[in-house]
Predict the 3D structure of the following.
Amino acid sequence: MKRNHLLGLVLCATLGAALVPDSNAFEPAHPAAPTATLQDVEQLSKALASAGASGTLSERKSALQALVDTADPKAMPAVSQEFARVNIKLRNAHDEAFKARYSIERKEQLVESLEKRAENDKSLEASLSTQREKLRELRDKLSKAEKEVEEYTPWQEALVEGSRALLTAIPASKRKGLEKDAWKALEAEGTGVEDRMASVDLLGYVGSEGTAVSMADLIADLTKESAKLKKKLPKLMADVRKLEARMQKEARDSGGFSSSGPQYERAKAEATGVQVAVLHLAYLCEVAAEAGGRALAREEGAVLDKSTQALIKAQKKGKDGARNYTIALLGHAHSEGVNAALRDQLLAEKDAAARAAMVEALAAAGDETWVEFGLSTLLADESWYVKRSTALALAKLRVRDAIPALIDGIEREPGRTKTDYQEALTSLTGQNYRSNVPLWRRWWEENKETFVVPPISEIEEQASEEAKEALGLTFFGIRTDSERVLFVLDLSGSMDFAMVPRNNPDDDTGNGREPDLPRAGEQSRLEAAKDALKRALGGIGDGAVFNIIFYASDVWSWQDDLLSMTGESRSEAMRYVEDLDAVGGTNIYGALATAFDMAGAESGDGWTSPKIDTIFFLSDGRPSVGLTIDPEEILAYVRDRNQSAGIVIHTIGLSGAQDAYLMRSLAEQNGGTYVAR
């Protein structure tokens, strides 16, 4: 990445020419207004910071207007800094609210389960009381986050309009001075990823013509730098594994002592640093795509046409993941002119990953004019990734004409595509006949004259009695027709704990607390997982491709590579599963990385045609070891690895200690289903 280019692009947020503020918001200073002194600007900047920290919205707007009225370039840093502060606050508040909602949903399930059993087992009353209190704490946390969103959203909007007004008021001759100051500020040591994201966000809100194209250039630089860093990771990870093995051997030979510990920690820290840097670059790319779309949406006429053509050209040349981010940028514009250009590209596009990305971008923009091509051509595409993206897009757009085409597709398509089409049909119709084509055809014949596709919000899963007899691969109630499956199973020590929560549902073993161990007649989580996995293996048809990955503190697999299902391999896998034991931590990152490696999924732009199309991922806890244990970084890693692969990830969370946010987000962001037990 060209560092100066990044800084220069972020600068565009404060340098755009001919910016037009909202006429109902902040008015630029009158051209004849007297020039403010440095002391005036400093005092007004302090007043803005003070009002931003503790003032009312009215007081904040007044302080901002006073700075806008100076029409002085020296006022811009204070406005930019306040925007960054508020932007970070809002991002964190949205994230906290999102996580709290998922945690509340899971905690409510746990409390309900305890309440039912406490009716007959009074020993659970103390545990139930504790869980109710934790539920109240989660609800308080959600309330606090929602209040912050409510408080800071209008203030961020005001800062955007104030920035536009100030930039419009600053004489063109003085705008160049901002460039030098902003470069110095962004080159300063310690500029974090959140501050950079805020700067890019501001650019999307206030940047002038050409900003969207500059965003695409930024994305290209970021992905190029990311690709360089990714090339370093295999060797760094190999060094970590080598030192880890050496350290374990030394500990065994010496009764617990290892001289390689410090060297191992240094190697791990270096690998972690590189991986986190890659993830932060991915964050910036995601923000840049959204910001570029906002900037493009403000352009009109010849300016819009010029930018659109430049972006279409940029996406064609994009490498290292830049192409998909640029296509997403075009979709974020929600512009008919941009959508038309995307449709033209879709008709002629050769690469499957790009076709899928264009379909997703058009659906995100609410565009339906490509639907006829989707029904006639894309639902029969050579790539299952394109077929899946098309089915999801048709369901998202609530396309009634897709219903008979999807029914035909269920009859025609094998494997996971059959499941994808069935799920799209269920979303459109509210019916759930799975892959039973005669039932689907009968229902459509009886209802096609009067049927109206309901809004997604009204759709509730409906399982017909006829569909319950459907056969196939099912794991903890999640069914798929996939013939290319990976199972990823948690073998951390807590998997020996009970499936039934009682006095310690959060697996809190601190201060000498005892875990909930299985009572007579009860199963441990590992036993439940073994039984479910053996049933799933029994449901996989001969000739399907599969493997099983296990993880605790380390990660390993049943076989070194994928293999075809036969009677013999099925029996061998079941015997292997039966002998599993639980011990160690929870290396979720390492398990997912191994799964993507085995699937042959490479991050980037081109269709990688992975050998696996479905992953079942099971865990009973939170990430505790690995290159990263941060849920957001794990999710970003998976988005990066999966953006051109299209692998569906289903997740199964066991116990009250699971990270419901991570497990549910992992499924939702990758087209899967989340089940909590």
